[in-house]
Amino acid sequence: MAGEKILIVEDNRMNMELANDLLEIAGFTALQADTAEKGVSLAREQLPNLILMDISLPGMDGLEAAKLIRGDERTRDIPIVAMTAHAMKGDEEKATLAGCNGYITKPLDIKLFSNIVKGFLNKKDR
Question: Which end of the chain is more exposed for a tag (fewer CB within 10 A), N or C?
């Protein structure tokens, strides 16, 4: 698992730095995008092993980005975990309908975050 590429799509600098640091400590290569458009582009260029997608982004939101990633044959099988700071009833269902494989709320719980990342990477290896 170590060395695998994980794309973080997050517009909040503090959340980006926390996720990046947690991933690097675990031995992963973190790719960063601060907009959904950049995230979709990086996903297509770098083909990461996992995408951590903020739902609330300026311009195109993370759910629309997830749909675009799912619509591209090169990226359609990459697991996407939706992240949100403003968890509202129905958000998890919307994320699932957009093509996300998982859902996590912010602020990030370090242990839960680590378990989710490792869990998705382990599923991919089976």
Answer: C
The domains of the chain are located at 5-125
Kindly tell me if the per-residue pLDDT of 72 is higher than 70. Answer: yes
Three-point CA angle 64, 119, 96, nearest 5°: 25
Mean pLDDT of the region 57-70: 96
pLDDT above 60 for 126: no
From residue 62, how far is each of 28, 50, 66, 116, 123 by CA, in Å?
Answer: 22, 14, 6, 18, 23
Alpha-carbon 21 to chain mean position: 15
Q: Which residues of 81-103 are buried (b: 16+ CB within 10 A; e: fewer)?
A: bbbbeeeeeebbebbeebbbbbb
**pTM given for the model:** 0.91
Residue written as token pair 């680590």 = 114
84-104: pLDDT as tens digits: 876 667 778 889 899 999 989
**Looking at domain 5-125, which CATH architecture does it have?**
3-Layer(aba) Sandwich (3.40)
